[in-house]
């Protein structure tokens, strides 16, 4: 969920349905009920010196796969940009959750200003490997749209305060999440940066050129850099131009995306000419950049440690597109937006058109990663659109939306 903070819902060639880009809650402000809504778990215990959870990198998210009480597998996304944990109604039923009748539904404000009410609940316990979290305050939401988008059933989005009494490592480099008990001596390689945790989310100083500013470490976003330019003087090597369509609980909004002509500095690590989404909300670094690091969060010490095996500058590949953004459903994909001036627009593809097949295969055969790889490597893609009782094939070139 977002409180006045948009998030990329998908790369320009694929838009998530209703929930994508709306995972975090109460970042830029509060929501009703915060005073009584329990954010961290009542009790945390870690039975081993290190709990390692296997994860897959899907759309720049680390998706944890784990069993609970020998049932599952269950899948979770860790969202360091969220101060609330969100779980599905099914997870509440299966693992001793109860709706908080003493608390009113929590209004969550989306980027478009609309409000949706989510039911608060308490999850009796949540086990992630040898780490057990008891008395977890959660919000209940059906994550089917996010699951359809990613092609993986998502059972929960785990907010930052859940891990307050542990040391949490999001190891993108080795596709895993590591949970370590607080108090154990840990020698961490890399660069340690202090963060501000007053909003129950990690805010760190970063730098573009000679200008420093504060940004959120946001593992619940698949974007690289979301940049609020107020007070800054960024130089764009290309763009910004209309790019992805952001889907939030409050409605859709079009992002402006470009490539900076300056180096982004995180600690001692440099990202040359990063791709950035321009936002009027809080600046953030998301999975599109975090994927190049292992990031460890120590909430007691208010510090994050970034590590990669080299200090060589990171270079971000061009952002490729066919000019189409989709809402992904199991049986078909609906065109959500068409990039102005793109070949897709020139060939008459319009928002609302239904796509049944891609390269003569049903859309159900194209999970996120497979389609992502296709857009990254193909020269052209053929879409089969439904037009009444007839079908129409349109072959579109893949181009660099942001070179």
Question: Any overview of this molecule?
Answer:
The chain has 403 residues and is mostly beta strands. Among the domains are: 192-292 and 305-315, Acid Proteases (Cathepsin D, subunit A, domain 1), CATH 2.40.70; 319-402, PDZ domain (Pdz3 Domain, Roll). Helices cover 8% and strands 47% of the residues. The chain is built from 5 helices and 33 strands. The protein has a 15-stranded mixed β-sheet that branches. A 10-stranded mixed β-sheet has the order 17-18-21-16-22-15-14-19-20-25. Strands 27, 28, 29, 30, 31 and 32 form a 6-stranded antiparallel β-sheet that branches. It is globular and about 60 Å long. It starts with 42 loop residues before the first strand and ends with a strand.
| Gyration radius, rounded | 21 Å
Average pLDDT level: 84
Binned, the helix content reads: under 10%
N-end to C-end Cα span = 31 Å
Number of strands: 33
Going by helix content, strand content and strand pairing, the class is: mainly beta
Count of DSSP H/I helices: 5
DSSP strand content: over 45%
- Residue runs with pLDDT of under 50 for 5 or more positions: 1-37
- What's the CATH architecture name of the domain at 192-292 and 305-315? Beta Barrel
Profile the largest sheet: 15 strands, mixed
Q: How is the CATH topology of the domain at 192-292 and 305-315 named? A: Cathepsin D, subunit A, domain 1
Query: What's the CATH superfamily of the domain at 192-292 and 305-315, by name?
Result: Acid Proteases
């Amino acid at each position: 969920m977002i409180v006045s903070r948009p998030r990329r819902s998908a790369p320009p060639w694929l838009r998530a349905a209703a929930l994508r880009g709306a995972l975090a809650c109460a970042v830029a402000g509060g929501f009703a009920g915060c005073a009584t809504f329990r954010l961290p778990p009542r009790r945390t215990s870690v039975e081993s010196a290190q709990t390692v959870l296997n994860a897959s990198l899907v759309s720049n998210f680390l998706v944890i796969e784990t069993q609970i009480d020998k049932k599952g597998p269950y899948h979770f996304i860790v969202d360091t940009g969220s101060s609330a944990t969100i779980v599905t109604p099914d997870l509440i039923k299966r693992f001793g959750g109860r709706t908080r009748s003493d608390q009113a539904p929590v209004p969550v404000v989306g980027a478009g200003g609309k409000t949706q009410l989510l039911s608060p609940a308490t999850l009796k316990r949540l086990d992630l490997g040898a780490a057990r979290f008891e008395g977890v305050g959660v919000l209940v939401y059906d994550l089917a749209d996010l699951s359809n988008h990613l092609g993986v059933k998502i059972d929960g989005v785990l907010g930052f305060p859940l891990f307050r009494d542990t040391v949490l490592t999001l190891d993108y480099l080795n596709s895993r999440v590591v949970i370590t008990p607080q108090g154990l001596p840990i020698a961490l390689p890399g660069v340690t940066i202090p963060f501000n945790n007053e909003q129950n989310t990690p805010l760190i100083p970063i730098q573009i050129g000679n200008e420093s500013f504060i940004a959120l470490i946001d593992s619940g976003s698949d974007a690289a850099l979301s940049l609020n330019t107020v007070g800054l003087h960024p130089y764009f090597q290309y763009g910004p131009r209309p790019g992805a369509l952001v889907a939030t609980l409050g409605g859709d909004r079009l992002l402006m995306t470009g490539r900076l002509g300056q180096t982004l500095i995180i600690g001692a690590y440099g990202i040359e000419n990063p791709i950035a989404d321009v936002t009027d909300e809080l600046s953030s670094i998301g999975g599109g950049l975090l994927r190049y690091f292992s990031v460890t969060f120590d909430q007691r010490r208010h510090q994050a440690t970034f590590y990669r095996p080299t200090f060589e500058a990171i270079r971000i590949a061009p952002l490729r597109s066919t000019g189409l953004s989709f809402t992904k459903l199991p049986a078909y994909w609906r065109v959500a937006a068409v990039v102005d001036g793109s070949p897709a627009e020139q060939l008459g593809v319009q928002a609302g058109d239904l796509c049944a097949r891609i390269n003569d295969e049903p859309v159900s055969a194209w999970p996120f990663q497979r389609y992502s790889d296709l857009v990254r490597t193909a020269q052209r893609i053929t879409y089969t659109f439904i037009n009444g009782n007839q079908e129409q094939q349109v072959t579109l070139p893949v181009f660099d939306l942001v070179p």
